[in-house]
Design a protein that fits this description.
Blueprint lengths: L3 H10 L4 H17 L14 H10 L10 E5 L7 H7 L4 E6 L2 H14 L3 E5 L12 E5 L4 H12 L4 E6 L3 H8 L3 E9 L7 E10 L4
Parallel strand pairs: 1-2, 1-4, 2-3, 4-5
Antiparallel strand pairs: 5-7, 6-7
Helix pairs in contact: 1-3, 2-4, 2-5, 6-7
């Protein structure tokens, strides 16, 4: 379940229901089983998995309705896709991941934690854009490229919900040279100078 002290500090600071915590524990335990053989998360990050990674993803819940259909792009180690699925049992999360070992881990975590989620092993640009309310991504691509990937869903009305680091303003400036959109940048509550970037009303992008 990760570092016990890290988990205890996380739980002291954040209100998580017993049911959600049970699902999160299953996810983190599965990640511990898989992380070395699948290069899922670095050893320096593991001692901070709850406070740095789980909490970073859980702050997205403020913007995700209980029954939302979420598509997570480039899911990797499951942040935020698995975390959202653990905390939104009435919704559904589709995770898109191209690397076979990572997709296999995601499926194992979904089964272990009984999550309302599925995994598509595919390059994001090749995946079929089905119905979705929210598109998420964390540490996947610069915003301009990320919007290229997310456009098939967002042009059908989905909202982009992206965790971005300290260079988010540079990424925003670059993305607006190609895309038109409304946005809101909410300072991250998990530390650092990153933001939760909410993107709506995506238009454009057809030009080179």
């Amino acid at each position: 379940m990760g570092d016990e002290n890290d988990r205890a500090v996380f739980l002291a600071a954040h209100d998580v229901s017993r049911e959600t915590l049970g699902r999160l524990d299953s996810v983190i335990t599965t990640l511990d089983d898989w992380r070395l053989k699948s290069n899922l998360i670095g050893p320096r990050e593991w001692p901070h998995i709850w406070q740095r990674h789980v909490w970073d993803c859980l702050q997205l819940l403020d913007h995700i309705p209980e029954t939302a259909r979420v598509v997570d792009l480039g899911s990797g180690a499951g942040f935020p896709g698995l975390i959202i699925a653990a905390a939104r049992p009435q919704g559904h999360v589709t995770m898109i991941e191209s690397v076979g070992k990572k997709a296999a881990f995601l499926r194992a975590a979904v089964l272990a934690a009984h999550l309302p989620a599925d995994v598509i092993q595919s390059r994001v640009e090749s995946a079929e854009a089905g119905p979705a309310d929210i598109i998420t991504a964390r540490a996947f691509a610069p915003l301009r490229r990320l919007l290229d990937f997310a456009a098939p869903w967002m042009k059908n009305g989905a909202t982009g919900l992206f965790l971005k680091g300290e260079r988010w303003e540079e990424e925003l400036t670059d993305a607006r040279q190609r895309w038109n959109f409304a946005y809101e940048a909410i300072p991250s509550r998990s530390g650092g100078s990153g933001v939760v970037l909410i993107v709506r009303e995506l238009r454009g992008g057809d030009e080179a």
